[in-house]
Amino acid sequence: LNDNLKIIEELESSVRSYVRSFPTVFTKAVGHKMWDMDGKEYIDFFAGAGALNYGHNDPKMKKKLVEYIMDDGITHSLDMATKAKTEFLKKFNDVILKPRDMEYKVMFPGPTGTNTVESALKLARKVTGRTDIISFTNGFHGMTIGSLSVTGNSAKRKGAGIPLQNVVTMPFDNFVNEDLDTLEYLERFLEDGGSGVELPAAMILETVQGEGGINAARYEWLKRVEKICNKYGILLIIDDVQAGVGRTGTFFSFEPAGINPDIICLSKSIGGFGSPLALTLCKPELDIWNPGEHNGTFRGNNHAFVTATESLTYWEDKSFENSILKKSEMITQFLEGLVKKYPELEGKVKGRGFMQGIETPVEGLAAKIAAVAFEKGLIMETSGVDDQVFKLFPPLTIDEEGLEKGFNIIEDSIKTIIK
Ligand code: PMP
């Protein structure tokens, strides 16, 4: 056995087999590249499932963080004000909220994605005094009880071992078929009192479902969802944990839809450098919690604030957004080309921006493509309840050459499997 496999074997016996899909031991990463113990280089089309939108070890963020540490900057401060925190809040306001005319209060709900979702559900219930939440098929919102209860994946829900209650799951855009107007059904359901279900506190959804198969909601559909929420006093929660921070082309994924969610969940890449940070944004009038009604030891990590502040520099002008859009177009064209060239895939291109993939009904094929691609030096995951989609998820900062290299590996892998 080589050293890599020996370490994995030891890990598997004592930890849990979480290294299965990428069977090696990684040691180093820069930008869109990673290296393992044997010095083998990989192109990263996974980007920490959206936690590394700016790539690995961004030089400017790294410098800021090293300087901060060398200056004995505050590491942990709980709820005390720190320079790192106030600078982040100011820049978030100046670069992200103000230019978009967005008036929101920023909360630190805890370190991770599931914490922001929990805080959103909890706040919505407190504000409305209602209990139920509407979630959508194939949605993914996290692994703790509240966020799991709104996650539309039975295999994941089983992990709780108990029924997860007070949630009604409705069909996501186009889930059933394109001719069925599921929102008309939803309105009817609400109008009728939902077969005994009281009016819900909130609806929660991702604009592009990252784990559930890269299903992108149409902007028209999102607008109608917002309209229904407004009509019935239901709070609209957009979970932008995965689709946000530029992943779909704009800082917030819902910007092109022109909607104004009541609550927005952010995490993953908001810290910029891969360190845990989460934000919950709520409309100012929803901020009804007394101090201490939602707290946590590790909410608001100062090191993450330092890198997060630096990461927002990317958003100071339009050039970053333009570069994402240009490269997204390359991804779409590549995927559409693949579908045409390889009818054996029976493929369908899905998603938006840097969140695209190909769905194939051929059992096990998407996972096989990802596995062969890994051997050839590309890190790529699958998505969807049946792992039926292979998912291209590179850092937004990847250059065109890196993208092309990744594309070539994917095409080579498909050729290896099909021919
Ligand atoms: N919401 C969405 C949309 C996610 O994709 C994820 C993580 N994949 C979460 C919430 C949960 O985030 P975390 O794993 O950081 O708890």
From TrEMBL:
Pathway in which the depicted protein is active: Amine and polyamine biosynthesis; ectoine biosynthesis; L-ectoine from L-aspartate 4-semialdehyde: step 1/3
Cofactor: pyridoxal 5'-phosphate
Lineage top rank: taxon: Bacteria
Molecular function GO terms recorded: diaminobutyrate-2-oxoglutarate transaminase activity
Reactions that this protein is recorded to catalyse: L-1,4-diaminobutanoate + 2-oxoglutarate = L-aspartate 4-semialdehyde + L-glutamate
PROSITE patterns xrefs: AA_TRANSFER_CLASS_3
Database matches in SUPFAM superfamilies: PLP-dependent transferases
Family affiliation: Belongs to the class-III pyridoxal-phosphate-dependent aminotransferase family.
PANTHER family: DIAMINOBUTYRATE--2-OXOGLUTARATE AMINOTRANSFERASE, DIAMINOBUTYRATE--2-OXOGLUTARATE TRANSAMINASE
NCBIfam families per UniProt: dat, ectoine_ectB, PRK09264.1
Name of this chain's protein: Diaminobutyrate--2-oxoglutarate transaminase
Annotated source species: Evansella alkalicola
The organism's taxonomic lineage, starting at the top: Bacteria, Bacillati, Bacillota, Bacilli, Bacillales
